[in-house]
Write a structure and sequence with these properties.
InterPro entries: FAD/NAD-bd_sf, FAD/NAD-binding_dom, Ferredoxin-NADP_redctase_2. Keywords: Flavoprotein, Oxidoreductase. This protein is an alpha/beta fold. Helix content is 27%, strand content 24%. The strands form four sheets. Strands 1, 2, 3, 4, 5, 6 and 17 form a seven-stranded mixed β-sheet that branches. A five-stranded parallel β-sheet has the order 8-15-9-10-11, with helices on one face. A three-stranded antiparallel β-sheet has the order 12-13-14, with no helix packed on it. Helix 1 packs parallel to helix 2 and helix 1 packs parallel to helix 7. It is elongated.
Length: 342
C-alpha cells in the first residue's frame, strides 16, 4: 500500500477498491498504463462473510480475503494502491483531471469512479450482516432454501422480494415494523394472493443462536417468530459527490448512466460497478470493470499511430517503442521472470 503526501500523476486513476474498480485497474495496468487505485476501505464486498456466485472462488473465502488477494495481484502487476479518501474532483484546462484526497492529490488522463452505494439499514434490533441480515437476493437466496425467511420493509421492492423468495421456501414473512405499506393496490392484491404472511407489529427484541446467527424476533404484539435470516429492503444511497463535481449526469434513481464500456457524458470519466444501472453482483461489476479497462486502453495506447500522424511526423523510430512506461516495463519483467516456471 503506497502512501501519498504530494501530487501524483498517472494515466489512469481508479477511485474505489471494490470488484469493479479492482478489475478496471488490473486491465489498465496489464495493458501498459500507469495506474493508481485509491481505496478508502470498506464497501459492500468487504461485508461478505462468504463469497457467493464468483466462479473459482469457494464459499469459505470472505469478502475481505477476496479483496486482499485482488489488491496483492494488482501490486504485483505494478498498480500503485493508496489507502485514502477522495473528497474533490475537477477537470483542468488541459483536459486532465485533478483529484484531491485527504492525504494528497492525483492528476489523471482518465478517471474511473467505482464508488458504489450504501444500503440503507433499518433500525435495531438487527442481526449481524451476513448472519441473518442480508441485502442481495441473488447472492444469498440459495442459503435459505427450505428455511424460514423474513423480508423487512414496506416498499414495492419488499413485496416482490417476498414473492420471489417463494421460489426457495414456503415460509416467507414481510415485516412492516409498524409502517404502512407503500406499495400500490395492485401490488397489495398480488402479494396477498401469495402464501406470504404480512406482520404489521414492530420488532421489540431479538434472539441469537450460539454461533451468532439470528434465531428469532420478538414483536410488540407479544409474538415470537423464528427465522434463519432475511433481507432488508429500504433502498440505497448512491455515492455521487465526485460525479457532481465533474459535471457527470446522474439519473433520478441515483445511478450514473454509461455506455457499454462505462463512459459517462464527460469525456475521460468512467463509472463502473454498483453505481451504474444493472444487477449489483460481483461478476457483473468485474465485467463492467474489464470493459472500461479495455476502452481506456483503446483511448490511451501509443500504437498503432494513425496514418495522418505518420505522414506528418514520419515513421515510428525503434527507440520510441515499446509504448509502456519504464516503471511498468520493469515491473512486468520482474513479474514474468518470477512466474517463468509456474
Amino acid at each position: 500500500m503506497t502512501k501519498t503526501d504530494e501530487r501524483q500523476e498517472y494515466e489512469v486513476v481508479v477511485v474505489g477498491g471494490g470488484p469493479a474498480g479492482l478489475q478496471t485497474a488490473l486491465y489498465t495496468t496489464r495493458l501498459g498504463h500507469d495506474t493508481a487505485l485509491v481505496d478508502r476501505g470498506g464497501g459492500r464486498a468487504a461485508m461478505m462473510l462468504d463469497t457467493h456466485n464468483v466462479i473459482g472462488i469457494t464459499e469459505d473465502q470472505s469478502g475481505n480475503e477476496f479483496l486482499a488477494t485482488a489488491r496483492q495481484q494488482l501490486e504485483d502487476y505494478g498498480t500503485d494502491i493508496f489507502r485514502d479518501f477522495v473528497t474533490e474532483a475537477e477537470q483542468l484546462d488541459d483536459g486532465r483531471f485533478r483529484l484531491v484526497a485527504n492525504d494528497g492529490e492525483f492528476i489523471a488522463d482518465r478517471v474511473v469512479l467505482g464508488v458504489g452505494f450504501n444500503d440503507k439499514r433499518p433500525d435495531p434490533p438487527l442481526p449481524r450482516t451476513g448472519k441473518g441480515l442480508h441485502y442481495c437476493l441473488h447472492c444469498d437466496a440459495y442459503m435459505f432454501v427450505d428455511e424460514s425467511v423474513y423480508v423487512m420493509g414496506h416498499s414495492t421492492s419488499a413485496a416482490y422480494v417476498a414473492m420471489i423468495m417463494l421460489n426457495f421456501t414456503d415460509e416467507v414473512d414481510i415485516l412492516l415494523r409498524g409502517e404502512e405499506p407503500e406499495w400500490s393496490d395492485e401490488t397489495d392484491e398480488l402479494v396477498r394472493a401469495h402464501p406470504v404472511d404480512i406482520v404489521e407489529a414492530e420488532i421489540s427484541g431479538m434472539n441469537k443462536r450460539d454461533d451468532g446467527w439470528l434465531e428469532s424476533f420478538e414483536f410488540e404484539d407479544g409474538t415470537v417468530r423464528e427465522y434463519k435470516g432475511g433481507f432488508a429492503m429500504y433502498g440505497s444511497e448512491y455515492n455521487t459527490t465526485l460525479f457532481d463535481h465533474l459535471g457527470v449526469d446522474v439519473d433520478d434513481d441515483g445511478t450514473v448512466p454509461v455506455d457499454d464500456h462505462g463512459r459517462t457524458n464527460v469525456e475521460g470519466v468512467f463509472a463502473v460497478g454498483d453505481v451504474t444501472p444493472g444487477h449489483n453482483q460481483i461478476p457483473v461489476a468485474m465485467g463492467k470493470g474489464a470493459k472500461a479497462g479495455i476502452a481506456i486502453h483503446m483511448d490511451l495506447r501509443e500504437f498503432p499511430k494513425g496514418l495522418e500522424e505518420i505522414r506528418a511526423d514520419g515513421a515510428v523510430a525503434p527507440e520510441e517503442v515499446p509504448g509502456i512506461s519504464p516503471a511498468l516495463l520493469d515491473k512486468a519483467k520482474q513479474f514474468n521472470e518470477s512466474h517463468a516456471d509456474d
